[in-house]
Amino acid sequence: MRALGAEPCDKADLVESAASGLALLEVFAGYDRAVVVDSIRTGRNQAGTIVELALADVGRVVAPSLHHAGIPELAAVAERLGLSFPGKTSVLAVEVAEPPTFGAPLSEPVAAAIGPLVQLVRARVDLWASKDAQLDEPDGPLCTTTTQ
């Protein structure tokens, strides 16, 4: 989501990562909240549909090892190991028709969803930041993570 980095944001860190599985623990370390931006292929929505999921809604990833674990598994491993993991995690994903191919351009429906997706991410960050301001006590740092 390089489109997120087009405008500076002083309310959140923007971290782009191609990491997966356990390697993502390092990306999330030290953050209390995270907005994860990714693609998703469920077959239930048209390509370009933006889906928002809470961590509990993501569901287990059945993988051959923790190197391929999903975000719910990462949260569970972090908890068992006493590592920090964002307590509030929102996943914003764009439905794709086919798995992405490296170097291939975005499909028209997915490209059209980028602007609204950026607005949703910024709205989530602004909402959490405004709640911090109302409490006059920040929850802690916010990480906006995009995956490739």
Q: Please, could you describe this protein's structure?
A:
The chain has 148 residues and is α/β, with parallel strands linked by helices. The protein has a single domain (2-147), classed as 3-Layer(aba) Sandwich (Rossmann fold), CATH 3.40.50.1450. The chain contains four helices and five strands, in the order E-H-E-E-H-H-E-H-E. The protein has helices at residues 24-28, 55-58, 71-81, 108-135, and strands spanning 13-17, 33-40, 50-54, 88-95, 142-147. Strands 1-5-2-4-3 form a five-stranded mixed β-sheet. The longest helix has 28 residues, at 108-135.
Query: How large is the radius of gyration?
Result: 15 Å
CATH architecture: 3-Layer(aba) Sandwich
Total E-strand runs: 5
Individual helix count: 4
Q: What structural class should be given to the helix and strand makeup?
A: alpha/beta
What is the share of helical residues?
25-40%
Mean pLDDT: 80
Number of domains: 1
What order do the strands of the largest sheet run in, or round the barrel if closed? 1-5-2-4-3
Give the CATH class. Answer: Alpha Beta
Q: CATH homologous superfamily?
A: HybD-like
State the CATH topology: Rossmann fold
- Percentage of β-strand residues: 15-25%
From the spread of the alpha carbons, the general shape counts as: globular
Largest sheet, strands/sense/barrel: 5 strands, mixed
The end-to-end distance, rounded to whole angstroms, is 8 Å
What order do the helices and strands follow?
A: EHEEHHEHE
Q: Give the uncertain stretches in residue-range form.
A: 136-143
